[in-house]
């Protein structure tokens, strides 16, 4: 299956430092369905915005609709049904979808039979308002209602508009085998939980994704085993807060926490690389870190979003940890996994009432930790969140942008410093694709999630190759096989 990826420029951050397929943080990437071409009657074109959770959900949606007689296609032209799986995390993410809908309107004029649906977080946030505001939308479906798609599509086929935005306390789609749309056949995403019970004051996710629930541990392990059987070499376990994963069998006799789940998956095969995202600083335990240390195939990379380096701002953000706690968690990582474990973060600049000194604290935390990578945003007020209701969005836009630029500049420096450490070392790289620039080069990632480019020779996708790194930029390592 090919994997067309369009990158649209709707980021706050130019994000020169972020690999496109990072698990939980909206990277500004848009993913388009690949073609399944099995001769089914109707064609589904699905475009996914936002985070990996959405990309992973689109694979579940495709699986449900595959059963209903839909092949996926990578072209909007000729599709019978267009679905946009949307993101609400920042205002810009929503604007991008609105713009896309007006483009699709043009297609619909040429092809009046085309059905248009909106899925995901924006669907959940706006509900029926979508139908009022965007006349071309036929279908609005929230993240917990995808099993209802066949019925909703029947309604739309019958000439009506259809909406289901009910959130669920149980739905995990545990039994649905995703159609791997976003996959290179090497690396796959596996959702281990849905929703979020944290109430970070800036964040819309608890409203769009509902209550936190953990998926049956056995179904997760089974999905990973099936991926291994199908030739996959890497899984990334997804959740908004993987460290609060908690599942118990119905009789209560079997209880599984995240460290134990991680271990079960790691034990499936030493050839399988295991990644996960996102780790919440308040919940990441030493037990998880020791499990990582015990298993070579659990990658030495932790995405541990700080959001701010200042304790007062963290309190306003309702992150439930302060700077000292965060520092302690970083020290635990360094103590248990050593300095080679890569750490990345998300940072928000210009949150409500953030002062210049408090912004400096974010820079000083960055200097202290020296992140390998970061996703950086300026604060964007989201309707309905705690911050929108209780706090004033009072940092002027140009100040937010200037602070963000300072945060990005510091991170660029650290990206380079952390990458330079690899020069002269041999890194085990899992080959994922051809390099974007040339088919004579391959691209893969090392244990620390850094992109490594090297001459193709006779290596193939899915191979593990030992690469002697001889050069780097802030975003990429370059080397040769040894
Ligand atoms: N569950 C993850 C975050 C998911 S959202 C966690 O807790 O770390 C991804 C990132 O988007 C967040 O970490 C935050 O940095 C950013 N973000 C969320 N809401 C935002 C807002 N209103 N304005 C700007 N950035 C925001
Ligand atoms: Fe949002 Fe906080 Fe939940 Fe992350 S942990 S999804 S930032 S509410
Ligand atoms: Fe993800 Fe955006 Fe929803 S970041 S959870 S798609 S709001």
Automatic annotation (TrEMBL):
GO cellular component assignments: cytosol
One matching Pfam family: Radical_SAM
Organism, as annotated: Hymenobacter roseosalivarius DSM 11622
Enzyme class, first EC level, given as a word: transferase
Molecular function, one GO term: tRNA-2-methylthio-N(6)-dimethylallyladenosine(37) synthase activity
The MTTase N-terminal domain, residue ranges: 42-158
Chain spans, region Disordered: 11-34
InterPro entries associated with the record: Elp3/MiaA/NifB-like_rSAM, Methylthiotransferase, Methylthiotransferase_CS, Methylthiotransferase_N, Methylthiotransferase_N_sf, MiaB_methiolase, rSAM, rSAM_horseshoe
Subunit structure: Monomer.
Keywords, alphabetical: 4Fe-4S, Cytoplasm, Iron, Iron-sulfur, Metal-binding, S-adenosyl-L-methionine, Transferase, tRNA processing
Record localization: Cytoplasm
Segments forming domain Radical SAM core: 182-418
Protein name: tRNA-2-methylthio-N(6)-dimethylallyladenosine synthase
Entry note: cofactor: Binds 2 [4Fe-4S] clusters. One cluster is coordinated with 3 cysteines and an exchangeable S-adenosyl-L-methionine.
Segments forming domain TRAM: 420-482
Catalytic activity: N(6)-dimethylallyladenosine(37) in tRNA + (sulfur carrier)-SH + AH2 + 2 S-adenosyl-L-methionine = 2-methylsulfanyl-N(6)-dimethylallyladenosine(37) in tRNA + (sulfur carrier)-H + 5'-deoxyadenosine + L-methionine + A + S-adenosyl-L-homocysteine + 2 H(+)
Binding site for [4Fe-4S] cluster 1: 51, 87, 121
Stated role: Catalyzes the methylthiolation of N6-(dimethylallyl)adenosine (i(6)A), leading to the formation of 2-methylthio-N6-(dimethylallyl)adenosine (ms(2)i(6)A) at position 37 in tRNAs that read codons beginning with uridine.
Chief location: cytoplasm
CDD domains: Radical_SAM
Cofactors demanded by this protein: [4Fe-4S] cluster
Enzyme Commission number(s) of this protein: 2.8.4.3
Family named by the database record: Belongs to the methylthiotransferase family. MiaB subfamily.
Residues reported in the UniProt entry to bind [4Fe-4S] cluster 2: 196, 200, 203
């Amino acid at each position: 299956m090919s994997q067309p990826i369009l990158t649209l420029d709707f980021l706050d951050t130019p994000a020169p430092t972020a690999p496109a397929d990072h698990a939980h943080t909206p990277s500004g990437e848009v993913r388009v369905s690949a073609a399944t071409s099995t001769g089914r009657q109707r064609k589904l074109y699905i475009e996914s915005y936002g985070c990996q959770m959405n990309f992973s959900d689109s694979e579940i949606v495709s699986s449900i609709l595959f059963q209903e007689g839909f092949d996926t296609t990578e072209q909007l032209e000729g599709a019978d049904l267009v679905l946009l799986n949307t993101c609400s995390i920042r205002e810009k993410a929503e604007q991008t979808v609105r713009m896309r809908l007006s483009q699709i309107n043009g297609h619909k004029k040429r092809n009046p039979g085309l059905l248009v649906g909106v899925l995901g977080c924006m669907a959940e946030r706006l509900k029926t308002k979508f139908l009022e505001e965007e006349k071309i939308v036929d279908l609005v479906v929230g993240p917990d209602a995808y099993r209802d798609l066949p019925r909703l599509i029947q309604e739309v086929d019958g000439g009506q508009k259809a909406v289901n935005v009910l959130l669920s306390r149980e739905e995990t789609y545990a039994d649905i085998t995703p159609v791997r749309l976003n996959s290179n056949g090497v690396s796959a995403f596996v959702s281990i939980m849905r929703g979020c019970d944290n109430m970070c004051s800036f964040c819309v996710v608890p409203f769009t994704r509902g209550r936190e629930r953990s998926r049956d541990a056995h179904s997760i392990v089974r999905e990973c085993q099936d991926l291994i059987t199908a030739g996959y070499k890497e899984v990334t376990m997804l959740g908004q807060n993987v460290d609060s994963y908690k599942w118990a069998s119905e009789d209560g006799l079997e209880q599984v926490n995240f460290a134990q789940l991680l271990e079960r998956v790691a034990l499936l095969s030493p050839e399988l690389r295991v990644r996960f995202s996102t780790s919440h600083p308040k919940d990441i335990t030493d037990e998880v870190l020791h499990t990582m240390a015990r298993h070579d195939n659990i990658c030495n990379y932790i995405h541990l979003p700080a959001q701010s380096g200042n304790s007062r701002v963290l309190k306003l953000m309702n992150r439930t940890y302060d700077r000292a706690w965060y520092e302690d968690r970083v020290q635990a990582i360094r103590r248990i996994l050593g300095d080679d474990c890569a750490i990345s973060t998300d940072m928000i600049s210009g949150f409500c009432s953030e002062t210049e000194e408090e912004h400096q604290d974010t820079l000083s935390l960055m200097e202290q930790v020296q992140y390998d990578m970061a996703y950086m945003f300026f604060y964007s007020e989201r309707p309905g969140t705690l911050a929108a209701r209780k706090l004033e969005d009072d940092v002027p836009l140009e100040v937010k942008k200037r602070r963000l630029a300072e945060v990005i500049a510091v991170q660029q420096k650290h990206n380079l410093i952390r990458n330079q450490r690899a020069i002269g070392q041999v890194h085990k790289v899992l080959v994922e694709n051809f390099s974007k620039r040339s088919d004579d080069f391959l691209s893969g990632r090392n244990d620390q999630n850094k992109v490594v480019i090297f001459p193709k020779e006779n290596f193939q996708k899915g191979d593990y190759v030992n690469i002697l790194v001889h050069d780097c930029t802030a975003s990429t390592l370059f080397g040769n096989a040894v």
